[in-house]
Amino acid sequence: MDNSTQDNRRSFSRFGFDAECVIHQGTNNWSSKLVDISLKGLLSEMPKDWQANESEAMEAELKLATDDTATIMMSVELVHKEKGHLGFKCKHIDIDSITHLRRLVELNLGNADMLERELSALIDA
User: Fold this and answer.
1) Domain boundaries of the chain, sorted by first residue
2) pLDDT digits (tens, 9 = 90+) for 60-109
3) What is the separation of C-alpha 105 from the centre of its chain, rounded to a whole number of angstroms?
4) Distance of alpha carbon 75 from alpha carbon 95, whole angstroms
5) What is the pTM of this model?
6) What is d(CA 8, CA 4) in angstroms, rounded to the nearest whole number?
7) Helix, strand, or coil (residue 73)
8) Calpha distance 102→98 (Å, rounded)
9) Which residues contact 30 (CB under 8 A, 6 or more apart)?
10) How far is CA 10 from the centre of its chain?
11) Contact criterion met (CB below 8 Å) for 36 and 15
12) What is 16-124's CATH superfamily?
């Protein structure tokens, strides 16, 4: 699939955000750096010690502040692994986390109409 086809399929804006990303699976935890995020998922750097069972459920925790008061938690599914990056699709997100994520998207889009369009696409997906 070429990049133009892939970009046309994306209905969610992705943007970079500097945050620590911790992937949880059972009792295992891997710290990483967030590359970008959207309402539908995230891309992180692949941790050096990555040894997850990639077909099992995982959770991603994004720490938005140094005091851990603002975090985004989402159940995720690994959808691709390439060039030192892990791409995750959001499977479930709680109300507090989606509130934080919505605000991040709103600030980065700078356009309320685009945010509403993305939220509508998320609900219809």
Assistant:
1) 16-124
2) 999 886 666 789 999 999 999 999 999 999 999 999 998 888 888 777 77
3) 11
4) 13
5) 0.78
6) 6
7) strand
8) 6
9) 22, 23, 47, 49, 50, 52
10) 14
11) yes
12) predicted glycosyltransferase like domains (2.40.10.220)
